[in-house]
Amino acid sequence: MADFDRRDLLKLFGLGGVVVASSLAGVGSAAGDEPPSPLRLFTGAVPKRTDGHDDFYFVQLSDTHWGFKGPLVNPRADTTLQHAIDAVNALPHPPSFVVFTGDLTHTTDDPAERRKRMTEFRKIASTLRTPVVHFMPGEHDAALDKGEAFIEQFGPTHKSFDHQGVHFITLDNVSDPKAFIGGEQLDWLAADLAKHDRSAPIVLLTHRPLFDLAPTWDWATPDGAKALKLFDAHENVTVFYGHIHQEHHFTTGRIQHHAARSLMFALPAPMSVPKKSPIPWDPAHPFKGLGFREVEDSRKGDTRVEAHDLETT
Fold it and tell me: Among 102, 126, 177, 254, which one is least packed by beta carbons within 10 Å?
């Protein structure tokens, strides 16, 4: 696809944060590439696909940390989630679905408070006008009780589903306090993948990165390599994850991995400072470094990743 055509297609869902994917294979930039520039809004019609499925896009929200209190980090912590949901509701073309990729709530040792925060989070999330919403746990939601409270509120911590010819898998690498996926879930993943042709487009959604981004910062999954090995026979695989509170793009073999920004506070670049801690709030630029992502499957032969900057909404 020519650059002009690609840019026009990207503008369809404007407001930044767009992934345009050809069968969701090879999405975005390789590690070290400059991030793409923001997009302008374009209100043209969505082009039709030729594979028997309609074009669609979904929104990824991550690391909302409902219940977090930190005036120096985010003095608007009690309204940031609703601000993001309002931005999604204002998109000119409604997404097919929304997925929250973990850390819905901020961690607490009190089981009653954990459930209270999840109930509050779900009530706010219910204001999304998108009829289908998928929820995944983060370690803040699930590590202290092995996902018990999350399952009560939102159902299984891992699952798979299909949408318009794309197979989606949500993987749990947070319920184990040591961040292992575990043999039982890996067996489930292998059985799930066995049902799909090697050329089928697959989107893998996780909370933690599956590769060793920064193990000493807990930005890794000890048996993530085993999970990725199961995808060796599959040609069109893309991973979207959260946890690191910033945009990051990386490639392992044929698989590209894309991290989403947080909706509560930003974190520094991997290993860029001696100690990992939230980046302080900048009153001159509220919501700087926060945002969400839109993912569009257009199957047009070219791909790109964009991040939606919450500061501009």
Answer: 126
